[in-house]
């Protein structure tokens, strides 16, 4: 009796995907149960691979934001060691922390917008935050380079 599911219907019967979901979770959830409703309440369910890729991109934005905030906090701690460089370190740390917060907000807004567009089968937009993030990192890098040079 190879491939049979014991205790589930007739011998050799394999439940279809929706039956497996129902048995696993107790009930099949529809899109109206999910949050945020303004995202999941429109269109039709996209291919799961696209939704999961969108979620991985969201998590990458979150990781980047956490790294920027961590770098800003570390720079504040290190900047207090040298009174002459403290203002520049505070400025760079502020830019990093603001960039990290921006990454978190952007990640959620982009995830929700992209998920909604996937459900509506609409084209995905370009990112506005990427050039802003590059400008923040270049500013912090140039500030660090200036103060790392002799006499800076």
TrEMBL record:
It is found in: Cell membrane. Pfam families: DUF202 (PF02656). Residues 49-116 form the DUF202 domain. It comes from the Bacteria. The chain crosses the membrane at residues 58-82, 88-112, 124-149. Its main location: membrane. InterPro entries: DUF202, IM_YidH-like. Residues 1-20 are annotated as: Disordered. Keywords: Cell membrane, Membrane, Transmembrane, Transmembrane helix. It is a multi-pass membrane protein. This is DUF202 domain-containing protein. The lineage of its organism: Bacteria, Bacillati, Actinomycetota, Actinomycetes, Mycobacteriales.
